Every structure is written in structure tokens, then in C-alpha cells.
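Methods — Computational structure assignment.
A single polypeptide chain was analysed. Its primary sequence is given first, followed by the predicted tertiary structure written as C-alpha cells.
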Amino acid sequence: MLNLINRYFLNYFIWWYLVQSKIVLGKVFGGWMFLMNLLNVPPMLKNLFQPLYQDYTRMGRIIAFPIRLTWVLIGLFIELLLLPIILIIFIIYLILPVIPIYGFASFLLNA
């Protein structure tokens, strides 16, 4: 009986929290980086003081900074808006295997 518990029950939690959590965290981070690149924040920040569309006229230089600054601020705002949602989903993922055990233990204690 103990071998069965060790083989399936404990190994499941080891798999869920150590093996699978690394994979899920990697996918979450990959999605986060994809969103940052989709919003084009790093290139806009890198070229913040460069003329827009290589327009080196005075007007091109004046227009480029506010457009890129607005783009970066909106992108960072969207990223920070989605950060708590992503963290909550990951925390729910970590809590998920414990919910049936808690339900089963509360059933046994109340019965």
C-alpha cells in the first residue's frame, strides 16, 4: 500500500511542482516576452531619440519622440495591466492539485 502511495501519489506532486511547473513557468515567461515584442516596446525604447522612418528633417525629429514615448508608455501600461492576471493564473495552477485533497480531508473530518 505504501509503495502504491509513493509511486503514484507522491510522484504526482513531485512531477506537478518540480517538473511541470518549470515548463509552465517557461511558457508563461515566453508568452510575456512575446507580448512585449508584439507591443514593440524594446525597439521603440532603443530608438527613442532616433527620427521616425529615418526622416531627418526638423519635423521628423520633433514628431518621433512623442510618438515613440507614447508607444512605450502604452505598451508598458498593457504589460503591467496583464501582470497580475498572469500571476493569479499561475498561482491557481500551483493550488489546483491541493483542492481535491482538501475536499477529501474535509469530507472525512465532517463525516
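Note: The mean pLDDT is 88.
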